[in-house]
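Today's session is about reading a structure prediction critically. Students often jump straight to the picture, but the first step is always the sequence itself: look for stretches that repeat, for charged clusters, for runs of hydrophobic residues. Only then move on to the predicted structure, which in these notes is written as discrete structure tokens rather than atom positions. Here is the chain we will use throughout the hour.
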Amino acid sequence: MNIAVVGTGYVGLVSGACFAEMGVDVTCVDVDKTKIDRLLSGEIPIYEPGLDGLVERNRRDGRLHFTTDLTECLQNVEIVFSAVGTPPDEDGSADLSYVLEVARTVGRNMDRYVLLVTKSTVPVGTSLKVKAAIREELSRRGLDIPFDVASNPEFLKEGAAIKDFMSPDRVVVGVESERARELMTRLYRPFLLNNFRVIFMDIASAEMTKYAANAMLATRISFMNDIANLCDLVGADVDMVRKGIGADARIGTGFLYSGCGYGGSCFPKDVKALARTAAEYGYEMQVVEAVDRVNERQKHILARKVQSVYPDLKGRTVALWGLSFKPDTDDMREAASLVTIADLLEAGAQVRVFDPAAMDECRRRLGDRVTYAGDMYEAADGADALVLVTEWKQFRLPSWSVLRKVMRVPVMVDGRNIYVRKEVEAEGFRYLSIGR
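Below is the predicted structure for this chain, in token form.
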């Protein structure tokens, strides 16, 4: 089976490599020539554990190809996946210009049946715009070639994307015709050996499922952060509260961990886009809008914790462990670290940072506004406070004795609640966490 995947960002490259691993002949397309040249030379432009080996193996075996020209492979593929970006506009709505340009390119160049599958996260109703764009281009050519559109939203977690793609909880596919359903069934048949479900539905429901899933997970995070902030005020322990409510089978334990707010390429953008879609239909999603407000407020909590120790931060050095929005990625989009750094700098502090993967991304974003350390202990050297922002594994069991020696003042602000208060305080540290 031959397919094309347009867009070699996080979703497109992972999807293309994983389909190729299952025996599909995949051509990944991107208009960014520099990115394609890097991929052709064996360089992976994103950080994702295991992806480099997967790409190299399938390139070597002739199942994975890269090009800048969709038209050169369009005549040889049965399915085209659109995995291009949908960045948020200033009003929070999703920018569909790249999605629609893929549709127009297909319409301008197709000469036989094609199934165009949207894998990008797009608002409900996007499929109608995609169909209209293809029909308009076919009409200009004076042709009436049959085609289908479908929706196949991704549910990948950065840092575990390959496992999620190969062994997902479910695959959601929105289709409008039996022909499209048969094609998608054939494509995903190799994955069915792992006993997961392909859930077929109408396209609008598939588009809504992606937003609803991310909004629900974001809601749980913001809810627990709100509870944690109240726990700080009343003297309760949010970890105990989490265990107590998570034991209820109706609630469960997933996404009930408090911290300094969610970030990344999905949750912030999708929550805003869902609220914006509702507004376009004259409906106010009060819960979703509150989730976003709580999260934006929560990102300021770490700087406030530091300032509770040092009301005047001028002349103070604050070390940050972790810059990416979560472990096992270099992605800093909407990361809590960016807000924390901005707050600390505005208060007059000097900021020294370390992250196992996101240092180059931080340099690109912040330049010389912060100091970059070579390792986690160098970051803490001479610091008046150490702030854990991202819970990378290497931060989980630090040498407290080394930290005690190198820090100017032993103050630990735990933004992810991964340490045990008694243990940290026994090492002579002042320990601050969230909701405990």
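Discussion point for the tutorial: The chain is about 45% helix and 15% strand.
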